[in-house]
Amino acid sequence: xxxxxxxxxxxxxxxxxxxxxxxxxxxxxxxxxxxxxxxxxxxxxxxxxxxxxxxxxxxxxxxxxxxxxxxxxxxxxxxxxxxxxxxxxxxxxxxxxxxxxxxxxxxxxxxxxxxxxxxxxxxxxxxxxxxxxxxxxxxxxxxxxxxxxxxxxxxxxxxxxxxxxxxxxxxxxxxxxxxxxxxxxxxxxxxxxxxxxxxxxxxxxxxxxxxxxxxxxxxxxxxxxxxxxxxxxxxxxxxxxxxxxxxxxxxxxxxxxxxxxxxxxxxxxxxxxxxxxxxxxxxxxxxxxxxxxxxxxxxxxxxxxxxxxxxxxxxxxxxxxxxxxxxxxxxxxxxxxxxxxxxxxxxxxxxxxxxxxxxxxxxxxxxxxxxxxxxxxxxxxxxxxxxxxxxxxxxxxxxxxxxxxxxxxxxxxxxxxxxxxxxxxxxxxxxxxxxxxxxxxxxxxxxxxxxxxxxxxxxxxxxxxxxxxxxxxxxxxxxxxxxxxxxxxxxxxxxxxxx
Amino acid sequence: xxxxxxxxxxxxxxxxxxxxxxxxxxxxxxxxxxxxxxxxxxxxxxxxxxxxxxxxxxxxxxxxxxxxxxxxxxxxxxxxxxxxxxxxxxxxxxxxxxxxxxxxxxxxxxxxxxxxxxxxxxxxxxxxxxxxxxxxxxxxxxxxxxxxxxxxxxxxxxxxxxxxxxxxxxxxxxxxxxxxxxxxxxxxxxxxxxxxxxxxxxxxxxxxxxxxxxxxxxxxxxxxxxxxxxxxxxxxxxxxxxxxxxxxxxxxxxxxxxxxxxxxxxxxxxxxxxxxxxxxxxxxxxxxxxxxxxxxxxxxxxxxxxxxxxxxxxxxxxxxxxxxxxxxxxxxxxxxxxxxxxxxxxxxxxxxxxxxxxxxxxxxxxxxxxxxxxxxxxxxxxxxxxxxxxxxxxxxxxxxxxxxxxxxxxxxxxxxxxxxx
Amino acid sequence: xxxxxxxxxxxxxxxxxxxxxxxxxxxxxxxxxxxxxxxxxxxxxxxxxxxxxxxxxxxxxxxxxxxxxxxxxxxxxxxxxxxxxxxxxxxxxxxxxxxxxxxxxxxxxxxxxxxxxxxxxxxxxxxxxxxxxxxxxxxxxxxxxxxxxxxxxxxxxxxxxxxxxxxxxxxxxxxxxxxxxxxxxxxxxxxxxxxxxxxxxxxxxxxxxxxxxxxxxxxxxxxxxxxxxxxxxxxxxxxxxxxxxxxxxxxxxxxxxxxxxxxxxxxxxxxxxxxxxxxxxxxxxxxxxxxxxxxxxxxxxxxxxxxxxxxxxxxxxxxxxxxxxxxxxxxxxxxxxxxxxxxxxxxxxxxxxxxxxxx
Amino acid sequence: xxxxxxxxxxxxxxxxxxxxxxxxxxxxxxxxxxxxxxxxxxxxxxxxxxxxxxxxxxxxxxxxxxxxxxxxxxxxxxxxxxxxxxxxxxxxxxxxxxxxxxxxxxxxxxxxxxxxxxxxxxxxxxxxxxxxxxxxxxxxxxxxxxxxxxxxxxxxxxxxxxxxxxxxxxxxxxxxxxxxxxxxxxxxxxxxxxxxxxxxxxxxxxxxxxxxxxxxxxxxxxxxxxxxxxxxxxxxxxxxxxxxxxxxxxxxxxxxxxxxxxxxxxxxxxxxxxxxxxxxxxx
Lengths: 499, 421, 359, 283
Prior knowledge:
The complex is a heterotetramer. Chain A is mainly alpha-helical. Chain A has 2 domains: 28-200, no CATH class; 201-485, ABC transporter involved in vitamin B12 uptake, BtuC (Orthogonal Bundle), CATH 1.10.3470. Helix content of chain A is 73%, strand content 2%. In chain A, a hairpin with a 2-residue loop joins strand 1 (336-340) and strand 2. Chain B folds into 2 domains: 28-145 and 290-375, 3-Layer(aba) Sandwich (Rossmann fold); 151-260, Rossmann fold (3-Layer(aba) Sandwich), CATH 3.40.50.2300. Chain B contains 12 helices and 14 strands. A 7-stranded mixed β-sheet of chain B has the order 7-6-8-9-10-13-14, sandwiched between helices. Chain B has a 5-stranded parallel β-sheet with strand order 2-1-3-4-5, sandwiched between helices. Chain B has a two-stranded antiparallel sheet with strand order 11-12. The N and C termini of chain B lie far apart (59 Å). In chain D, 48% of the residues are buried. Residues 1-33 of chain D have low confidence and may be disordered. Chains in contact: A-B, A-C, B-C, C-D. At the B-C interface, helix 1, helix 3, helix 4 and helix 6 of B face helix 2, helix 3, helix 5, helix 13 and helix 15 of C.
């Protein structure tokens, strides 16, 4: 008899969640917009593990895992959903999940969740989660009736470097808001703590974005440092080489999507060799057909390559259309890593910085540690002499130019991950590229490196102060002045004049 | 010897020039329709599809027998995103090709560049893009939105409960007259709603700005101060880096929604929208609208793109300016039919109050006096498939207010079109 | 590049013939505006379209000539001449805007709800002062930039890139709305100049004739320079600057003089350009335009006087034709043109004519 | 203002008024005072040191050239001969030391142009002429006259000047080639043309870097004659490897080695000198 009873209870327990979920789903489906919001808030206040599945599918606009997409969500509902979901997750056994939930609630917890948080905070065993919950709680306790509670909360907030904490604490400074003198002073001290933390975050952020911009400039300019810096070809079609690289990335992405959807995660890696090959191929073709006839006449190369760039742009426009094409970041390149509460470093940019440095290193090795590099340097320094020594100048020129363009292609792959991919992509980088090469000193790879990062950081330091436009103008003015002092650029060889 | 060669060269150049001037002289039983959209240069990204949709509409009208028994003959020119060239080409269309009407321009500057030409030669221009207002020419019909048909409802929505009840506004735009004027109007409007200046941040970036790290960081900082929304008038190309930066720095629509006025289906084609779900755009038309007229419009367009083998035809989308071009051309055809002629003055008269059942699902009417179309306002949410999902819309089309009441000095502006305003 | 510069194609072709051709061209150019005054529908009437088109091309031709003075003769390739052109245009535009606005502020300023004019607009309602600005703005900028550049012996590609950076900076500056020059929209919708309706055929004809006069004037000036010792010093400068210094010439002065002169010519061209096309905006400063100017010169044949004019005329003629005839693919033609010229006509079209001349 | 007309018979007269008619007109044009060489030395170098990051191209070198002297500088490659010329003409600035032109002009403080205008002419190792211009124009440009921008704009050739140019054309034997582009001349002819340009410049001090390289024996002989004629009225400093040539012209020879003066004296003396033999024959 008790056995049966147990069974019955057991069945009930097993069956209950489904009952609950089903009914919730119906409630939600039948509710009006406002009722839905209310419903979600209730769920957030009294979580129930059984709703996990339902909330999950609601986020995708379905009433159940296998239901069709019928719900129309808006940001308000999405926010509440996330919130409800977080509080459900607090019940999870996995400390990691609980931690994320707690961190979410730090920012978004509603007063109605106060009780819930208090319970979990008390019950929580895991250190990290406990602390996180403490902060989340503190945010709500700032308006608690009991001054001592508020005081504790204020002190606790001092620990966090969360930008939200600053605004919350600032609010407490007015006597009108916070009656208790002690709490106010505590708020002041905590505020100072928080602001110190935030300042560090901001400075790091600026430095990083400077480096990131620098790496972009470097990738854009590196190829030019060879075609222009070494071969002396004023390659106005350089930007279009970047563009070709970006479009090859797009092509690879399409192909992978179609034939190997599994490998989509890694299409940028596949794109690298392709982009290099495409750009280098086009580059060599141009070198053989056009530029070969123009060595020693740099200014003519300017005009010819200008014509080439016009043709390439229009060709791409006719093939792929004038609109931008979609190049999606794969999972490992999207999102970012939260270093500090107010500092997120996007993966794509981190990777690009590394990539830029690698490419620069490889180029340097190629030019200084290989036979080809030796030949290139020989030919670029004294064509006739090299020819006499049996260096096949023609082939070397072709390979060198191809190399330059190929590197530009690699740059294009990187650019496609952070910017737009359209026919005019190259145009927006060409001037900066030339400035980098000239500033670094023509023919000086190391110079280009320093110039690129220098410009990037300078730009990013100026931008917050005087805005993007004035910043750029000021940079240009500085470059012009700088060239006055060092007409051959940062790393000019002694006594050698390039013109 | 030398003499001959010199003369040869001279005559050659002369003949080329002559050819250029007499190129498009053709049979006269047709009505010539000028299409003045950049097919090269920076604006080609937006304008090429308008050229194509115009050609499609002309085909459709011709298929129905044309206007007044005459077929329409498109004259396509490429002003190459070069503003002086717009004026030159405009003059050429009106004086050399003697077109009855011109559909064209995207940027305000191109419109301002051709405006004097059209007023001088009494031409007729249909301008299909949302713009800053502050203009009302008898020679132009504006089928795009005026600020009160796009910006203000959008901000009202952002402040509403469903919109997330934003209390702080980050006005981000490319530095040209449309964002400037729009933001000026918005600021005045927000003041009227009791939003203080410290809760409004106004930031401008140069054209083709590609590095939004600092700005997104600032948005984050600003948003810590309370419920924030971004109102973006960032222009075409810069949107991709902007949205990518938003996504990668983890700024979600649930925390800081971005309301864009210049981002439509075409622009989204260049972006992976999965991380952007929930960000907003305000237009008077979306491709995703579910009504028979629109279904036909979209189907026709996709078919046309395939048939003509346009690049990226498989992903062809429609957007607001395309709809505006489509509507504008039909309105003009109806008016010309009604007037029984293509004479500009007659057509202008006939156009007043002319109405057309538009893909937006409403019957749009050309205002009797101010040359602007009455348009419904819709707020769309970006979906992960690159389309918009309409989350809010007006019950009826709104009348345009080209002279915004929020800009001082506009009270005494005339409410009907006069030259040289 | 090495052909003696004072032996220009004109002389090669023999002074008499070239005079004849020159006279013919000049007469046609003078006839155009007069014919444009004929009543509409008259068989000989030249339409305003052709007049403005040719007028525009003539302005470009002046720019090409000015660029050739510094590139072809002194060997300094400037990729920033668009800036000087635009500055002259803006100076004139300021006057036209004031003229159009009457006593009030220019329209774009009232958009930005500015109360009074910025200081640098002072006096622009006076035509005379505007004219001074047309010369002073490009001139002084060129003077300052040139002084520093030539003092530190910036040459060749470095000079080109620096000038490009300069015009790029200028473009960004003028794009800013706060700068007070109408931002991206620039100046447009002009009404009248010196009280004459700017769209009246008479005004157009006069503007056109002024352009022709300026072109002829700068052509004569260039010719005199090429003839003078100054021209020979420039050539020497281009080929062997060190030698010249050891001969006791100071290259800086010579470079600076021709550089500023060329900038001023561009400014004047710009000033005539604006009222004819009816708009000036920062687009004119975009590096692309300046590079195109260089292309005109190279195509026509640099280091000669008629070369640049020929180049500017042809390229722009082609452009106007192509953009209508083949809107989709005209860029291919243009690009191919540049490549072919640089590959097969290193001395430009003039060079081609000369090659024919050699028996 | 015009320089005083120069009559053919005194075409090689040293003019002491190097600065005449050179008021500061035009940019960067600096007036140079008349050359004061009362103490008999036209060039005074004391303790001149030039070091390119560490390496001493010239090391504490002293050198005095008297008015009207014809001095030959010889020495193995890398002895610093060309650097020495660069120092004198202001192309390279000495790291240390004094360099006076006459008794009043401090060369270390003057620009190349000022030095040239003050009356020091230089002929490069590799003949450099204005290739695009005709022989006549080359000489005309070199002609000693007001060389400011404005002067050049309105310059007309006076008959004296034409006469002067024809004179020099005769001297260097290029009358026939007067109308040809200098670029089309032979190596030797270019050498002569450059020498001719120096004559036109009419400087107090001529620096000649290997003037007879690439000349036929006859030409060499002729050049030797020419230099001898010049000497006495002008001061010449000739850097040459061709010992024969040196022997035929030099009364006084300086041997440079590793940036120092190794020996000085008549050709016989220096050739007898042990160290010199060692340096040259490496014994």
